[in-house]
Amino acid sequence: MKQIARNYVWWENIDRDLEGMARECLPCRELRPAPPAAPLHSWPWPAEPWARLHIDFLCPFNNSYYLIIIDAHSKWIEAEKINTTSANAVCDSLRRHFSRFGLPKRICNGIKHTLVPPYHPSSNGAAENAVRTIKRVLKKAELEKEDINRALSRFLFMYRNTEQSTTGREPAVALLGRRLRGRLDLLRSDTAERVRARQLTEEQRGSAPLRVAQKNEPVLVRNYSKTGSKWDEGVVQARTGPVTYNVATKDGHTHKRHIDQILARKSRHSLSRVMDSSPNKSTSACSRDMSEGGSDHDHDESFDSAEEEASAGPAPAPQPPPPTLLAPTVQRIDKPRREAAIRCCEKLKNRK
Question: Cα separation of 178 and 173, whole Å?
Fold first, then answer.
């Protein structure tokens, strides 16, 4: 639309006017892709074992279900076969584990239950990784005609006695203070510092700045129901975590959503952005936005201000439109003719 318009007419803020018209197009909104993934946000590493548990289901496998539990401190994994995923079955399984290791601080019985956004498995990444690992073990045992329960027990025994790459210690040593076979404990110092360094390395791999939604900000929120549109209009009620929000939609419901499941309604770029402290990341993020076809009007004001604060010198003065983009017949027109030109561009778009 911009290219066609520039071949015939030009007025101040022509890009912004055309973008505003495109944002009001309901079919275009319905087909919008998900926003860029937010930067990795690691769970804080608990200082003591069995303080925070991550749980998930592996299901179905040979018409059976497995409850997977992983301790965030020691990376100790429990995998128990259950017949159903009902609340009673899950509670019975958890009681058996709690009778051996005690009650954790987070997940019933005065325990704080931390929920994650639905349809966003990376928010519970520790449990998802454990589920994937156990599923691979069960499939391998099935292919080798081995007893599944025996194979699972053997794997868990070896895993709990093997040094974990994140913590640098065996899960058995981290949870129980000893190796399962009674050999010398291979305790390592500064485990918390090593875990945080590993987390920072993973977080720094992504170059996208964190997008932030403000309270009472109108947004588009991902709709996962089988009926209705892909994106529903809503209003941010509260920020419940570094990357999670409560969003109220027009139907009166409140949904917990990850920032990856939220789009802004007012601008082309999604929500305001918090620039990374690394100058290289700030530069790469800005360059990527400009390389994707954005004009002087494509940036959010909050993104621009954050970038200016991170830079050492003053912001460069705005440049006029490149002359190579304008045809020789370009002319400045008044408001009535401008509106007629926008309608013409819309017809050309629909015809295309």
Answer: 4
Mapping DSSP to helix (H, G, I), strand (E, B) and coil, where does residue 312 land?
Answer: coil
Vertex 267 angle, CA 262 and 269, to 5°: 65
| DSSP assignment letter at 83 | S
CA–CA separation, 314 and 80 (whole Å): 60
Chain segment 56-109, per-residue pLDDT in tens: 888 778 888 899 999 988 889 999 998 888 888 889 899 889 888 888 888 764
Question: Measuring CA to CA, which residue among 155, 179, 143 is closest to residue 66?
Answer: 155
**Residue 239 CB: number of other CB atoms within 10 A?**
15
Instruction: Return the structure tokens found at 259.
Output: 């920032």
Query: Over the stretch 195-246, which tens digit does the pLDDT of each residue have?
Result: 888 888 887 776 567 889 999 999 999 998 878 888 999 999 999 998 999 9
Domains, the chain: 32-39+209-321 (2.30.30.140), 53-203 (3.30.420.10)
Cis upstream peptide for 322 (omega within 30°): no
C-alpha pair distances (Å), 154 with each of 60, 129, 140, 150: 21, 19, 13, 6
Residue partners of 246: CB distance under 8 A and separation at least 6:
236, 237, 238, 240, 254, 255, 256
Residue/partner pairs of 166-171 with CB below 8 Å, 24 or more apart: 166/75, 166/195, 166/198, 167/73, 167/74, 167/75, 167/191, 167/194, 167/195, 168/194, 169/74, 171/71, 171/74, 171/75, 171/76, 171/77
Nearest to 128 by CA among 201, 203, 43: 43
98 contacts: CB under 8 Å, gap ≥ 6: 104, 109
31 membership: H or E segment, kind and range: none
Q: Pick from 52, 77, 99, 68: which is nearest to 158 by CA?
A: 77
Strands 64-71 and 77-82: antiparallel
Q: Residue 179 in 3-state DSSP?
A: coil
